[in-house]
Design a protein that fits this description.
The complex is a heterodimer of chains A (145) and B (668).
Chain A: H1 11-36, E1 37-41, H2 43-49, E2 57-63, E3 69-71, E4 76-82, E5 87-93, E6 105-112, E7 118-125, E8 127-128
Chain B: H1 3-32, H2 35-64, H3 71-76, H4 83-88, H5 94-119, H6 121-141, H7 178-188, H8 190-202, H9 208-238, H10 249-274, H11 278-301, E1 308-309, H12 315-337, H13 353-385, E2 389-391, H14 393-413, H15 424-447, H16 453-484, H17 488-498, H18 500-525, E3 527-534, E4 538-541, E5 544-556, E6 559-570, E7 573-577, E8 580-583, E9 590-593, E10 595-597, E11 602-611, E12 618-627, H19 630-647
Antiparallel strand pairs in B: 3-12, 4-5, 5-6, 6-7, 6-8, 8-9, 10-11, 11-12
Helix pairs in contact in B: 1-2, 1-6, 2-5, 5-6, 5-7, 6-8, 7-9, 8-9, 8-11, 9-10, 9-19, 10-11, 10-13, 11-12, 13-14, 14-16, 15-16, 16-17, 16-18, 17-18, 18-19
Classes of the chains: A alpha+beta (145), B alpha+beta (668).
Amino acid sequence: MSRDTRVISGRRALLLGVLAAAAVIGFVAVQNLQVASVYYLTPTEAKTRGIAAGTPARLGGLVEAGSLRYDPTSRELRFTIGDGVNRVAVVGNGAPPGLLREGAGAVVEGSFAADGTFRATQVLAKHDEVYQAPAPGATPAHRAP
Amino acid sequence: MTVFGDLGAGTLRAALVLTLLALGTTIVAARRHDVRALESSRWATLAAFTLVLIACAAMVGALLTHDFSLRYVALNNALETPVFFGAISLWAALEGSILLWTLILGGATAYVAWRGTVALPRLAVTALAVMLAMLAFFLFLVITPAADPFVRIPGPEVPLNGRGPNALLQNHPLMALHPPLLYLGYVLTAVPFAYAMAALIHGEFGDRWITATRRFALVSWALLGVGIVAGAWWSYAVLGWGGYWAWDPVENAAIMPWLASTAYLHSVMVEEKRRMLRVWNVSLVIATFALTILGTFLTRSGIVNSVHSFTQSAIGPLLLAYLVAILVFGVGLLLWRARLLSDAGGIGAPLSREAIFLFQNVLFVAATVTVLLGTLYPLIAEAINGAQLSIGAPYFDRVEVPLALALLFLMGIGPQLPWHGASRATLERQFTAPLVAAAAGAVAALALGLQGVAPVLTYALGAFVAATVVQEYARGVRARRALHGETFGDALRGLLRRSGRRYGGYIVHLGIVLVALAVATSQARTVEVERTLSAGDELVAAGYVVRLAAISDVHEPQRDSVVADLVITGNGASEHLRPALVEYPNTAQAVGSPGIASGLRDDIYTILAAYDTRARSWATIRVRVIPLVSWLWIGGAVVGLGAIVAALPPPRRRWRPAITIPVAVGAK
């Protein structure tokens, strides 16, 4: 069996390969940015912007005192999330995450139902290095001008 | 009681003065080749480092003696805090973390001053000046109110007890490991950066700056990698969500410099062997270093919204200014010198090692850029149309997973191809066995019940890479045995010691394969069951029987816990787990403390999700059976081990001069 020991060459193929890879990655990234972007709102913003029912959104705020209800048999979780001015009723399924507490920060992912309640598919408690409650109605620091 | 505060504040100010003095004498030394000026910079640098060390010791002393007249201690320590967590509270919050950062940077600067300037005067002296300028910035930072760890509380307001460290930070010993590793990795990227800047300033583009910083680049990369895995492990063991990675901005901030640094470690080999990609390599060094600062800026300024909300402070603008200065300085010098950085020839053969490294670099840079894009996109979108968006994990999963698989593929191919190009015969010799292994890997994945393209491909590619590594080791050992007549063990040791960079690199590749298999399997095959149980009830998850034996209250000085006693049987397991919800008096939130039975096959991860607050009659228990997740941590350790093998200097050749020169002749 004679073996081919010539070096396989092709500079143009190499260059095209690199460019094609970069183009495909760029395309996939931009496509997915649009698919995976979710509105991030405070209850006040949700009210003023009028987010349509069913639009995926993330809602951040404080779990209001006395609002947390968890039914162990149906495992339905209800609480209201507020920013001191407005509040939104949240309904989720499953036990609250261990960090979720009344008066503490939380982020819920899901969408608004037609009746104005927020159907959470995911409830995240904010784990703070040092817990600081924001001022009533305050804009979150990451969005301060 | 303020002795520690005075000591810390005083030493930091003195260290800044000494650093500025050293910077001045170093610039004189660099310009006039003045050895005496260099000598004084060395001592001043060492003294500055020692002073920062004393400041850190003062902070630890203040934490251990509960000196609540210091704001940092009052916020991060309490009388009940155990000694261990008190000591590591040095990095429990922003100010202490920046102090630790300054200490590490001071250590690296002192190292460059004493060891670096011996071998390579001109380049190293200029690099030392760059390091000293950066150290001066950080020392300035720790004495400004934005990040001063020694801020006092006025006498009458000193609290009797402090708030104690954040509950999450005193819940697990891994906290002792993860932040320092990450900071070490972050800070040590400054050394290659400083040398690259020195090379640009002098227009000196041999391999010298690369040789001088090779170990620093490798060690900082390894520490970052191991630090990231330790962080994932901490998140897994502490946060109680059963996952280890969420594409949170804080995590992205850590992985971006690691990705850029991985690209550099490979492309630098092309420069060493083929004298190519010079501008590219300097760019990667600048990018890696800038990304460490960007990451710190993003996570510490509160500009991106993260589930980890760190303390927000005025440090943001200062870090941003520092980042801009670094980019202007680095990119400016690069543009100024780019003309001199010509490459010797180009890459001709697509099936050569340099071409695969090029592709690998394109993919790693693409991974870095896409992670950066996903992290910053909410800011960009808001700037353009005012919409408040957040980018979820699906973006990162869909973009990064294919990139990771492509990189796994290249990891199998690259080391098997010769420089300059491969022939058909070479391809046959190198890839026959690995391709058979890849097929076997795919079959194994299907037999294990894995579904979906990505997990099966991960198994196939993992087996492919593992086979290439085994093949390389087998050939290396065989060659040494034939050449030197060594035993198998001696031959293996010889490979690792004499060609540590290459064979250590292969160990790193094996570690990455383990990480990839662990991620693919745990993501694809986790079983989760959540039930509300009364004492004595059972639930079944993936063949494991979980029985709730009791719900009890546990009181400790620094915390109160509600604990679920779980007995696990089935699948040959016999475990007793105690997931808990822990309350710290000074924190508003309860902390879930999961009960985990780790195994080489499955982890049984149990969470006390909710309980009857009045009668303790029921508890909602969430059980996740996560296969092979332990191999993620093991893989991280293997990566670290491989990096150690690669970084160890090869043994000095025993040198026996043939002629002895009489030393005394001509001596003064």
